[in-house]
Amino acid sequence: MANKTFSQRADDIRVCIACNQACIGHYALGAPISCIQFPESGRELEYGNRVTVDSSREVLVVGGGPAGLKAAAVAAERGHQVTLYEKSKRLGGQVLLAQLLPERSEFGGIITNLEHEARTAGVDIKLGSEITTDALRASEADVIVIASGATPHIPDIEITDSANVVTAWEVINDEAECGSRIVVADWRGDWVGIGLARKLIKAGHQVRLATVANCAGFNMQFYTRDPMIAEIDQLGVQFTHYARLAGADEGTAYFVHASGGHMMDFECDTLVLAYGHDSEMDLFNSLEDSRTEVHVIGDALSPRTAEEAVLEGLKVGSKI
């Protein structure tokens, strides 16, 4: 950090985004410490030095989220000619949603840092450019990297037309009309469920967080999770654990106890689905018979967290 400052490269300093995930979170799990923004840390023997390529190749990256940005940056830094296509007008993918949750604005810094890394390496970033299947198949790129992300998962359950059911993305983007009594159905036990409960209770709604895990925020680092649970508990959020969503109609959300098997019914005006994501695989599947070298990374491969996405971007960018 000091060397970057003295050499007039302050913009190269990665600002911490306060996620506590791969650093102290790994420490608590007994795993090697790293950083979700810079997974080279803790892996210096394998990824500490960029190996310049003997022959530059044309690389096309689809998707400007954490995975796509990291893959593009590393490939370009090694000497490849890289073009990244992002269909929206902003880079970030799901990070743009995550940073909208209460007191999570810092998390958006991961995109600020990865974008700087990519542009510094010479990546040609094309925003507002949705690349079609035909265009992809007609491309003369030597390598295609699919980092097209994911979409909200809608569980296969019985939901009547009269039920007011919305997705977590719609609530975070303030696109949903929510009633006064809300049940948040949380399958992943991560930032999303707790963040939604926090957002909605602060907006004046009555909120129940119904999670299939044995603890709200089960997959979060306890350094971060426990203070948040204490806060929303004091604000009045009701918690129900072992709750697997079974269905919904007008005025009621139905759950099955994941351990006991008995039914649990909760009156509500709105049911919010925080039930994970489905990979966007259409572009990748369209290249199944292609002779071009194709890689798929991030949530397009399997929906997880930004940590896995950035690490996979590093691995693919180093491999090409």
Secondary structure elements and pairings:
Layout: H1 2-6, H2 24-29, H3 44-47, E1 58-62, H4 66-77, E2 81-86, H5 95-98, H6 109-121, E3 124-127, H7 133-138, E4 143-146, E5 150-152, E6 158-159, E7 165-167, H8 168-172, E8 181-186, H9 191-202, E9 206-211, H10 222-235, E10 238-240, E11 243-249, E12 252-257, E13 263-267, E14 270-274, E15 277-279, H11 282-286, E16 293-296, H12 306-319
Parallel strand pairs: 1-2, 1-4, 2-3, 4-16, 6-11, 7-14, 8-9, 8-14, 9-10
Antiparallel strand pairs: 5-15, 11-12, 12-13
Which features does this protein show?
320 residues, alpha/beta, Rossmann fold, 2 domains, five-stranded parallel sheet, globular
Descriptive account of the structure:
There is one protein chain. Helix content is 31%, strand content 22%. The protein is an alpha/beta fold and 320 residues long. It has two domains: 52-151 and 278-319, 3-Layer(aba) Sandwich (Rossmann fold); 154-275, FAD/NAD(P)-binding domain, CATH 3.50.50.60. The strands form four sheets. The chain has a five-stranded parallel β-sheet with strand order 3-2-1-4-16, covered by helices on one side. A five-stranded parallel β-sheet has the order 7-14-8-9-10. Strands 6-11-12-13 form a four-stranded mixed β-sheet, with no helix packed on it. Helix 4 (66-77) runs parallel beside helix 6, helix 4 packs parallel to helix 12 (306-319) and helix 9 (191-202) runs parallel beside helix 10.
